[in-house]
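Question (not urgent): is this output format expected?
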Amino acid sequence: MKPYSAWRVFREGLRGHTGWEPAWRSAEPKRRYDVVIVGGGGHGLATAYYLAKHHGVTNVAVLERNWIGGGNTGRNTTVVRSNYYYPQSVALYDLAVRLYERLSLELNYNVMFSQRGMVTSAHSRHDMENAERLVRGMQANGVDVCMLDRAQIAAKVPALDTSASARFPVLGGFMQGRAGPARHDAVVWGYARAADKLGVDIVQDCEVTGFRKHASGRLQGVETSQGYIEADKAAIVVAGHSSVLAAKAGSRSAHHVLRAPSVCK
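Got this back:
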Protein backbone atom coordinates (compact mmCIF):
# COMPACT_ATOMS: atom_id res chain seq x y z
CA MET A 1 0.00 0.00 0.00
CA LYS A 2 1.54 3.27 -1.12
CA PRO A 3 1.55 6.15 1.38
CA TYR A 4 -0.55 9.22 0.74
CA SER A 5 1.23 12.53 0.12
CA ALA A 6 0.72 15.92 -1.47
CA TRP A 7 2.89 14.76 -4.37
CA ARG A 8 0.64 11.75 -5.00
CA VAL A 9 -2.47 13.95 -4.99
CA PHE A 10 -0.82 16.24 -7.55
CA ARG A 11 0.38 13.34 -9.72
CA GLU A 12 -2.95 11.51 -9.65
CA GLY A 13 -4.70 14.74 -10.56
CA LEU A 14 -2.60 14.90 -13.72
CA ARG A 15 -3.41 11.25 -14.45
CA GLY A 16 -7.15 11.65 -14.00
CA HIS A 17 -7.07 9.93 -10.60
CA THR A 18 -6.75 6.49 -12.23
CA GLY A 19 -3.92 5.24 -10.04
CA TRP A 20 -5.56 5.12 -6.62
CA GLU A 21 -5.82 1.66 -5.08
CA PRO A 22 -8.55 0.63 -2.57
CA ALA A 23 -7.88 2.02 0.90
CA TRP A 24 -8.22 -1.48 2.40
CA ARG A 25 -8.78 -5.05 1.23
CA SER A 26 -12.25 -6.52 0.97
CA ALA A 27 -11.30 -9.62 2.93
CA GLU A 28 -12.98 -13.01 2.96
CA PRO A 29 -13.13 -14.48 6.48
CA LYS A 30 -10.55 -17.13 7.32
CA ARG A 31 -11.38 -20.29 9.23
CA ARG A 32 -9.67 -19.13 12.41
CA TYR A 33 -8.43 -15.94 14.10
CA ASP A 34 -6.71 -15.18 17.37
CA VAL A 35 -9.16 -12.31 17.95
CA VAL A 36 -12.52 -11.50 16.39
CA ILE A 37 -13.79 -7.94 16.84
CA VAL A 38 -17.52 -7.56 16.35
CA GLY A 39 -18.29 -4.08 15.05
CA GLY A 40 -16.59 -2.10 12.29
CA GLY A 41 -17.01 1.39 13.67
CA GLY A 42 -14.42 3.76 15.09
CA HIS A 43 -13.96 1.85 18.35
CA GLY A 44 -13.82 -1.58 16.72
CA LEU A 45 -11.29 -0.54 14.11
CA ALA A 46 -9.22 1.34 16.68
CA THR A 47 -9.17 -1.81 18.82
CA ALA A 48 -7.86 -3.81 15.87
CA TYR A 49 -5.28 -1.19 14.96
CA TYR A 50 -3.82 -0.83 18.45
CA LEU A 51 -3.81 -4.60 18.99
CA ALA A 52 -1.73 -4.96 15.84
CA LYS A 53 0.50 -1.93 16.37
CA HIS A 54 1.25 -2.10 20.08
CA HIS A 55 0.74 -5.79 20.88
CA GLY A 56 1.72 -7.52 17.65
CA VAL A 57 -1.63 -9.32 17.40
CA THR A 58 -2.32 -9.28 13.67
CA ASN A 59 -4.39 -12.45 13.15
CA VAL A 60 -7.48 -10.35 13.77
CA ALA A 61 -10.81 -10.00 11.97
CA VAL A 62 -13.15 -7.03 12.25
CA LEU A 63 -16.68 -8.24 11.42
CA GLU A 64 -19.24 -5.62 10.38
CA ARG A 65 -22.80 -6.61 9.60
CA ASN A 66 -23.32 -3.70 7.21
CA TRP A 67 -20.57 -1.37 5.99
CA ILE A 68 -17.61 0.17 7.75
CA GLY A 69 -18.73 3.18 9.82
CA GLY A 70 -22.40 2.71 8.97
CA GLY A 71 -23.59 2.42 12.57
CA ASN A 72 -23.21 4.64 15.61
CA THR A 73 -19.95 6.13 14.31
CA GLY A 74 -21.84 7.82 11.48
CA ARG A 75 -24.27 9.39 13.96
CA ASN A 76 -21.96 10.77 16.62
CA THR A 77 -21.40 14.44 17.38
CA THR A 78 -17.83 14.48 15.94
CA VAL A 79 -16.62 16.66 18.84
CA VAL A 80 -13.34 15.61 20.46
CA ARG A 81 -12.89 17.12 23.92
CA SER A 82 -11.67 16.44 27.44
CA ASN A 83 -13.63 19.06 29.41
CA TYR A 84 -15.03 16.59 31.93
CA TYR A 85 -15.33 17.03 35.67
CA TYR A 86 -13.99 13.85 37.28
CA PRO A 87 -10.27 12.95 37.25
CA GLN A 88 -10.96 9.54 35.71
CA SER A 89 -12.92 11.09 32.84
CA VAL A 90 -10.23 13.70 32.25
CA ALA A 91 -7.50 11.03 32.10
CA LEU A 92 -9.39 8.98 29.52
CA TYR A 93 -10.62 11.78 27.29
CA ASP A 94 -7.46 13.88 27.44
CA LEU A 95 -5.56 10.83 26.19
CA ALA A 96 -8.03 10.72 23.30
CA VAL A 97 -7.46 14.41 22.50
CA ARG A 98 -3.69 13.87 22.49
CA LEU A 99 -4.10 10.86 20.19
CA TYR A 100 -6.29 12.87 17.82
CA GLU A 101 -3.75 15.68 17.69
CA ARG A 102 -1.34 13.34 15.87
CA LEU A 103 -3.77 10.85 14.40
CA SER A 104 -3.64 12.14 10.82
CA LEU A 105 0.15 11.79 10.79
CA GLU A 106 0.07 8.40 12.50
CA LEU A 107 -2.53 6.90 10.17
CA ASN A 108 -1.29 8.74 7.05
CA TYR A 109 -4.90 9.81 6.58
CA ASN A 110 -6.46 13.22 7.13
CA VAL A 111 -9.12 12.79 9.84
CA MET A 112 -9.89 16.53 9.61
CA PHE A 113 -9.43 17.23 13.31
CA SER A 114 -9.88 21.01 13.66
CA GLN A 115 -9.00 22.35 17.11
CA ARG A 116 -11.13 25.48 16.86
CA GLY A 117 -12.35 25.14 20.44
CA MET A 118 -15.65 24.26 22.06
CA VAL A 119 -17.87 26.86 23.73
CA THR A 120 -20.56 25.96 26.28
CA SER A 121 -23.03 28.76 26.95
CA ALA A 122 -24.91 29.56 30.15
CA HIS A 123 -28.40 31.07 30.10
CA SER A 124 -29.24 31.78 33.73
CA ARG A 125 -27.60 32.76 37.00
CA HIS A 126 -27.78 29.11 38.06
CA ASP A 127 -26.10 28.06 34.79
CA MET A 128 -23.29 30.52 35.46
CA GLU A 129 -22.80 29.27 39.02
CA ASN A 130 -22.66 25.68 37.79
CA ALA A 131 -20.27 26.62 34.97
CA GLU A 132 -17.96 28.34 37.46
CA ARG A 133 -17.98 25.23 39.68
CA LEU A 134 -17.27 22.95 36.72
CA VAL A 135 -14.47 25.13 35.38
CA ARG A 136 -12.70 25.36 38.74
CA GLY A 137 -12.97 21.61 39.19
CA MET A 138 -11.74 20.90 35.65
CA GLN A 139 -8.84 23.33 35.98
CA ALA A 140 -7.82 21.55 39.19
CA ASN A 141 -7.70 18.34 37.15
CA GLY A 142 -5.51 19.94 34.48
CA VAL A 143 -8.12 20.67 31.81
CA ASP A 144 -7.46 23.74 29.64
CA VAL A 145 -10.80 25.51 30.16
CA CYS A 146 -11.65 29.12 30.96
CA MET A 147 -14.74 31.16 31.78
CA LEU A 148 -16.17 33.53 29.16
CA ASP A 149 -18.45 36.51 29.59
CA ARG A 150 -21.19 37.41 27.11
CA ALA A 151 -18.99 39.75 25.07
CA GLN A 152 -16.31 37.09 24.69
CA ILE A 153 -18.86 34.52 23.54
CA ALA A 154 -20.27 37.02 21.04
CA ALA A 155 -16.79 37.57 19.64
CA LYS A 156 -16.06 33.85 19.33
CA VAL A 157 -19.50 32.83 18.03
CA PRO A 158 -20.80 35.77 15.94
CA ALA A 159 -23.76 33.77 14.60
CA LEU A 160 -25.16 33.28 18.11
CA ASP A 161 -27.80 35.77 19.25
CA THR A 162 -26.35 37.20 22.46
CA SER A 163 -28.69 40.19 22.65
CA ALA A 164 -30.83 40.86 25.69
CA SER A 165 -33.94 40.06 23.61
CA ALA A 166 -32.78 36.57 22.68
CA ARG A 167 -35.19 33.76 23.53
CA PHE A 168 -32.48 32.20 25.69
CA PRO A 169 -30.28 35.13 26.81
CA VAL A 170 -26.57 34.28 26.98
CA LEU A 171 -24.97 35.37 30.24
CA GLY A 172 -21.60 33.73 29.68
CA GLY A 173 -20.09 30.27 29.59
CA PHE A 174 -16.79 28.46 29.25
CA MET A 175 -14.47 27.18 26.53
CA GLN A 176 -11.88 24.46 25.93
CA GLY A 177 -9.47 25.71 23.30
CA ARG A 178 -7.98 22.32 22.33
CA ALA A 179 -11.37 20.77 21.56
CA GLY A 180 -12.81 20.54 18.09
CA PRO A 181 -14.55 18.36 15.51
CA ALA A 182 -13.12 15.50 13.49
CA ARG A 183 -14.82 13.90 10.50
CA HIS A 184 -16.13 10.54 11.72
CA ASP A 185 -16.02 8.96 8.25
CA ALA A 186 -12.37 9.91 7.86
CA VAL A 187 -11.52 8.48 11.29
CA VAL A 188 -13.11 5.15 10.35
CA TRP A 189 -11.45 5.03 6.94
CA GLY A 190 -8.08 5.99 8.39
CA TYR A 191 -8.19 3.29 11.07
CA ALA A 192 -9.45 0.72 8.55
CA ARG A 193 -6.62 1.50 6.14
CA ALA A 194 -3.96 1.44 8.86
CA ALA A 195 -5.28 -1.78 10.44
CA ASP A 196 -5.46 -3.46 7.04
CA LYS A 197 -1.86 -2.47 6.35
CA LEU A 198 -0.83 -4.27 9.57
CA GLY A 199 -2.57 -7.47 8.43
CA VAL A 200 -6.03 -7.15 9.99
CA ASP A 201 -8.90 -8.60 7.93
CA ILE A 202 -11.91 -6.29 7.57
CA VAL A 203 -15.03 -8.24 6.64
CA GLN A 204 -18.18 -6.32 5.74
CA ASP A 205 -21.72 -7.71 5.34
CA CYS A 206 -20.87 -10.28 7.99
CA GLU A 207 -23.34 -10.39 10.88
CA VAL A 208 -22.47 -12.26 14.07
CA THR A 209 -25.47 -14.40 15.00
CA GLY A 210 -24.12 -16.43 17.89
CA PHE A 211 -21.19 -17.74 19.89
CA ARG A 212 -19.84 -21.23 20.52
CA LYS A 213 -18.12 -22.05 23.79
CA HIS A 214 -16.16 -24.95 25.19
CA ALA A 215 -17.58 -26.93 28.10
CA SER A 216 -15.35 -24.84 30.36
CA GLY A 217 -17.15 -21.69 29.18
CA ARG A 218 -14.19 -20.40 27.18
CA LEU A 219 -14.92 -18.98 23.74
CA GLN A 220 -14.58 -21.43 20.84
CA GLY A 221 -15.76 -19.26 17.95
CA VAL A 222 -18.52 -17.13 16.44
CA GLU A 223 -21.43 -17.95 14.17
CA THR A 224 -21.82 -15.45 11.33
CA SER A 225 -23.90 -14.89 8.22
CA GLN A 226 -20.81 -15.97 6.27
CA GLY A 227 -20.21 -19.15 8.24
CA TYR A 228 -18.56 -20.30 11.45
CA ILE A 229 -15.22 -18.70 12.50
CA GLU A 230 -13.00 -20.12 15.21
CA ALA A 231 -11.53 -17.56 17.61
CA ASP A 232 -9.68 -17.58 20.92
CA LYS A 233 -11.01 -14.21 21.97
CA ALA A 234 -13.79 -11.86 20.94
CA ALA A 235 -14.50 -8.19 21.55
CA ILE A 236 -18.03 -6.82 21.29
CA VAL A 237 -17.77 -3.22 20.10
CA VAL A 238 -21.25 -2.51 18.77
CA ALA A 239 -22.42 0.47 20.82
CA GLY A 240 -26.09 0.11 21.78
CA HIS A 241 -26.26 -3.47 20.51
CA SER A 242 -23.57 -4.68 22.93
CA SER A 243 -26.09 -6.07 25.42
CA VAL A 244 -27.93 -7.92 22.62
CA LEU A 245 -24.78 -9.72 21.51
CA ALA A 246 -23.65 -10.26 25.08
CA ALA A 247 -26.91 -12.08 25.74
CA LYS A 248 -26.22 -14.33 22.76
CA ALA A 249 -22.85 -15.10 24.32
CA GLY A 250 -24.61 -16.13 27.53
CA SER A 251 -23.60 -13.06 29.50
CA ARG A 252 -25.68 -10.41 31.22
CA SER A 253 -23.06 -7.79 30.52
CA ALA A 254 -20.90 -7.03 27.51
CA HIS A 255 -17.96 -6.53 29.88
CA HIS A 256 -17.76 -10.28 30.47
CA VAL A 257 -16.88 -11.06 26.85
CA LEU A 258 -14.51 -8.21 26.14
CA ARG A 259 -10.97 -9.44 25.66
CA ALA A 260 -9.23 -6.58 23.83
CA PRO A 261 -8.42 -2.97 24.79
CA SER A 262 -10.16 -0.13 23.03
CA VAL A 263 -9.28 3.54 22.77
CA CYS A 264 -12.37 5.69 22.44
CA LYS A 265 -13.00 9.45 22.11
